[in-house]
Specification:
It contains seven helices and six strands. The N and C termini lie far apart (about 120 Å). The relative contact order is 0.13. Strand 3 and strand 4 form a beta hairpin. About 55% of the residues lie in helices and about 20% in strands. The strands form two sheets. Strands 1, 2, 5 and 6 form a four-stranded mixed sheet that branches. A two-stranded antiparallel ribbon has the order 3-4. The chain has two domains: about 50 residues; about 190 residues, no CATH class.
């Protein structure tokens, strides 16, 4: 009886093996995997066509509120004395200042952090028609330093505005982007716009200054005062460069 039962079980196992081969299980799961792969491919295409974020794109971008930090260090201007006639904004002048600011940014999707980098370059050109230590030279230099101060105030105000715009841009794309690359591209495109916008704003503010002063008029009338001439007569040439200079307050105390 026992041998008959063992024989029956062996026969049943053999029949099951031949009736349901192992390859059938493999084919079943292979077909299942292919169907799931096709499903995800079609879903990804669906999201792409409708500009919606996929599940992988959602996971690679942090959900933390974004913030923007600024890397900016004011630079000292460079001065030069020009013997030839100066031309400033296509007009003859005794001096001219050039100020450029370059904006660049980096976006870290894991930290929800935007780094705004600002570099500047300032150059002041002065005519050699008036020697250092004269009242006229002092008035010309003061005029250009006022331009630089205007540039700086405009830049500081623009940086504050740029921080807000970058944060809002990142926040908007954070929920609607297709991934980190899309966010970084949006931030970079906005940063590139800053260069042109700041240049136009700074030029407009400095144009107002020249218009108020009568288009490169340096108010030499104050130099006719004996007190003004006497004060410049005893002044050392190096001190003229720092007189009324907001950029080097520590040197003005000498």
């Amino acid at each position: 009886m026992k041998k008959s039962l063992i024989g029956f079980i062996c026969c049943l196992t053999a029949v099951s093996f031949f009736a349901f081969p192992a390859s059938a299980f493999k084919q079943k799961y292979t077909r299942h995997y292919q169907e799931r792969t096709k499903y995800y491919q079609e879903r990804t295409k669906y999201y792409q066509e409708r500009d919606l974020p996929s599940s992988s794109a959602y996971l690679e971008v942090s959900r933390e509120p974004p913030k923007t930090v600024v890397e900016y260090s004011p630079q000292k201007p460079t001065f030069e004395i020009v013997s030839d006639n100066l031309s400033c904004h296509e007009q003859e002048a005794l001096s001219c200042s050039s100020f450029s600011a370059d904006f660049s940014s980096e976006a870290d999707c894991e930290l929800s952090l935007i780094t705004l980098k600002v570099t500047e370059k300032i150059k002041v050109s002065l005519t050699s028609s008036y020697k250092k230590g004269t009242c006229q030279f002092d008035r010309i230099l003061k005029h250009e330093l006022t331009h630089i101060d205007t540039y700086r105030k405009t830049l500081n105000s623009f940086i504050t505005q740029a921080k807000q715009e970058l944060t809002e841009k990142y926040k908007t794309r954070q929920e609607n982007s297709k991934g980190c690359e899309d966010i970084q591209k949006s931030v970079a495109d906005l940063t590139n716009e800053f260069n042109k916008r700041y240049s136009e704003k700074a030029e407009a503010e400095n144009a107002k200054l020249d218009m108020e002063n009568g288009n490169h008029k340096y108010n030499f009338s104050v130099c006719a005062s004996p007190e003004k001439n006497n004060s410049n007569k005893n002044r050392k040439p190096d001190e003229v460069k720092t007189a009324s200079n907001p950029l080097y307050p520590e040197k003005s105390k000498r």
